[in-house]
Amino acid sequence: MRWEEVQERFPEEWVVLEATKAHSKEGHRYIEEVIVIDAFDDPTKARRRYSELHREEPQREYCFFHTSRPELVARERYVGVRGPR
Predict the structure, then answer these.
(1) Number of helical (H) and strand (E) elements in the chain, helices listed first
(2) pTM here?
């Protein structure tokens, strides 16, 4: 599902998503297609659901956003092992 479709079906809600098509560019993650997992009025509940999913299946790309956002772009975070300094 594309972001515009999500916005139409879940106006003014927090949605927990699984990205099914995305790409990275210059430190940002551009999410093109998603599956809606859950929708919430409360951002705390959305974050809690996201955390549960991420803990259960860390290899999948989950995220949560408010549908008022004009586009699905997130800053990438480096999660890796740093070498010696």
Answers:
(1) 2, 4
(2) 0.85
Q: From 26, 60, 62, select the one nearest 46 (Cα to Cα).
A: 62
As a whole number of angstroms, the distance between CA 79 and CA 72 comes to 20
User: What's the mean pLDDT in 14-42?
Assistant: 96
Which of 78, 67, 72 is closest to 19 using CA atoms? 72
Residue 85, pLDDT > 70, answer no
Place of tokens 């999913």: 53
Any idea what DSSP says for residue 59?
A: T
Interval 23-41 mean pLDDT: 96
The burial class, CB within 10 Å (0-12 / 13-18 / 19+), for 60 is: exposed
- Residues ≥6 apart with Cβ < 8 Å to 68: 12
